[in-house]
Structures are given as structure tokens and as C-alpha cells.
């Protein structure tokens, strides 16, 4: 098995989240799955559309890109949320702009690397095109990320959200 940067980041995020919550509440994995599915429905569709705009592609190629996006991005997103869940105090308001900005920035760093790799490997493009693709995805996807965070935070009006529904 090849060890990649995203594999290392995924392992680190899971370790941080697990260590941080050693004595704290257990995560709501079903809630995390729902949040991941909602985010990825929008995010992967957006990224696949941008991929086609940058690199072109037919129906078969586009389906492959969507599948790769869903699998890789979902793993990174879920691990990222799990790690933040372990590091965030339970009483922190989940719609706090600083929290959303911090989570968005760290997710963007991980996701930009994944987008660049997807563009470079699947798109067969030069590094400059893949970098432009990754930056474009990062800008557009940041809006989707913030909207998902805010939506899940505001959907709960009974105080701070339980673990993984933040």
C-alpha cells in the first residue's frame, strides 16, 4: 500500500480527534454520516462540474471523476470533522464565525491538495492548470463548506450541537 499525503493527513486527523475526546462525549457517527453526505452531494457535484470545465470529458470520464471525488473527499471531510469535534469545547456555539472560519481554512488546506492531485492525475494536465483548478475549487467549495456548517449549526436551536453535528 502506498502512503500518500492525504493518507497521512487522514490518520493524523483521526488520531487528534480520538485523543482529544479520550474523556469527553462520544461522537454521533450517524450525524457525521448525514453531514458528510449533505456536504458531499453539493461539493462533489460542484468539483466534478469544474473538472469538466477545466479538462473536458465524456460521460464515462465524468462518472469516474465524480466517484473519485466522492470517495476521497468524503474520507477527508469525515476525518476532518471528527478531529474538530474532538478539539472543540462542547459549549462552543456551532454557528460561531471564528469556529466556522477555522474549520473551513483547515479543510481547504487538505482539500486543495486532493483537488490538485485529482486534476494532475485524472486530468493529465500540467501543474499550472491543476493549481488553477485546485484554487478555483477551493474558492467555490469554501462557500459550500461554510453554508453546510452554518446550516447544521442553525438547524439545531436547542443549544450547542452534539458531537459531529456542528
In short:
With 166 residues, the chain is mainly α. It contains 5 helices and no strands.
Primary descriptors:
77% helix
Describe this structure in words.
By secondary structure, the protein is an all-alpha fold. The protein has helices at residues 5-20, 29-55, 59-87, 97-122, 127-155. Helix 2 packs antiparallel against helix 5, helix 3 (59-87) packs antiparallel against helix 4 (97-122) and helix 4 (97-122) packs antiparallel against helix 5 (127-155). The termini are far apart.
Q: How is the biggest beta sheet arranged?
A: none
Overall SS class: mainly alpha
Count of discrete structural domains: 1
3D shape: elongated
Topology:
Elements: H1 5-20, H2 29-55, H3 59-87, H4 97-122, H5 127-155
